[in-house]
Write a structure and sequence with these properties.
This protein is mainly beta. It is built from one helix and twelve strands; from the N terminus they run H-E-E-E-E-E-E-E-E-E-E-E-E. The protein has a domain of 44 residues. A three-stranded antiparallel beta sheet has the order 1-2-3, with no helix packed on it.
Length: 211
Amino acid sequence: MARLPAWMVLVLLSACSKVSDTSEALPEPACQAPTPLGAGSGLVRCADGSVNRESAGTCTPEVVGPSCQGNETVQNCTSDAECSAHAYGRCLSGMQGGGGQASSCDCSYSCATDADCESGQACLCAGAATGIEGARCAPASCFSNADCASGECSVSTCNDLAGLACRSAADTCRVDAECAAPGETCDLGWTAGTGTSKWACRSYFDCVVIY
């Protein structure tokens, strides 16, 4: 068997070394040490506190809140039986108008799986974000990490609402702790002049839920 010239051996060794160096330089996933967030929810919490949806899960359907008392100013429903437009409906008592000017009764719905939600929505389990006390259908432009080029389908909050969207290299923050200005939180919002969205430190009125 013929032996390779010494110069060719050096070239081959050099090429192998470059391939090895390239693989060692691959970036680590942004979500480090993911831990399950509730049994079967499909959600994981990353070490930095952000929450991703690894896969569709199954939630415990529950609508949290006080039942309608019948003496509210506005009564869009009076009993749970009237809340049948979707699954797991309840007639809850609450306040209308942002400033709490009028009491009202309104239907609120929960979910167990994505199948209970409308197109373009996902069933987010309780605890997916601050203020999410019961499972609810939420706007979603992704449904699992596999849907995103970044490998991260993340939960974004907007005031007391939440939704799912892909992380991207355009994001300028991952968690609220990175926001220095008083009252700002790290939320998904529209990028001015581009028509695209990204996570950034935003004020209360500058986030979005419909992606």
